[in-house]
C-alpha cells in the first residue's frame, strides 16, 4: 500500500493542473480568433470557454497563493420531514380550522396547502392557526401562486421533538 500524498505532492499536482488548464485556455483563445473570421457563433462559444478557464484558473491560483487548504465542513444533508398521509393533513388542517382547496404531499415530506383566493380567513390568520396546532410543524414558505393568485402555505412536520 502506498502512503497518501503529502501537502507538497498536492501542491505540485495543483501547479501541474494550472499549467495544463492554461495551455487549454490558450488553445481555446486561438480557436476563438480563428472562428471570428468564419462564424460569429463559433467565436462567441470559444470566448465563453476562455472565460470559464480564466475563472477556474483564478480560483486555483488563489488557492495556491493563500494556502487555504483547510478541510471545509461537510454540508448537512437536506432536511426531510415526517411523511404524513392525506388523512393526517386533513385532520391537522381541520383542527386548525383552515380548509385547503388542494393539498400536495412532496417526496421530502413537505406539504403544500393551497387555499381559495376569496376565502373568509385572512392568510396571516391561517398561518398562525396552523403554527399553533402542532409544535413539530414548521412553516417553509407562504405566498400566492403566480398563475392563479391563490394563497399557499408550504410546511412540514419534524420528527418527534425530544
Please provide a written account of the structure.
There is one protein chain. By secondary structure, this protein is α+β, with helices and mostly antiparallel strands. Helix content is 50%, strand content 14%. The protein has helices at residues 7-38, 40-66, 86-96, 123-133, and strands spanning 102-105, 111-114, 137-144, 151-157. A hairpin with a 6-residue loop joins β3 and β4 (151-157).
Secondary-structure topology with pairs:
Elements: H1 7-38, H2 40-66, H3 86-96, E1 102-105, E2 111-114, H4 123-133, E3 137-144, E4 151-157
Antiparallel strand pairs: 1-2, 2-4, 3-4
Using brief descriptors, characterize the structure shown.
single chain, 162 residues, four-stranded antiparallel beta sheet, 4 helices, 14% strand
Summarize the amount of helix as a percent range.
40-55%
- What profile does the largest beta sheet have? 4 strands, antiparallel
Radius of gyration: 27 Å
Integer average pLDDT: 85
In short:
This protein has helices at 7-38, 40-66, 86-96, 123-133; strands at 102-105, 111-114, 137-144, 151-157.
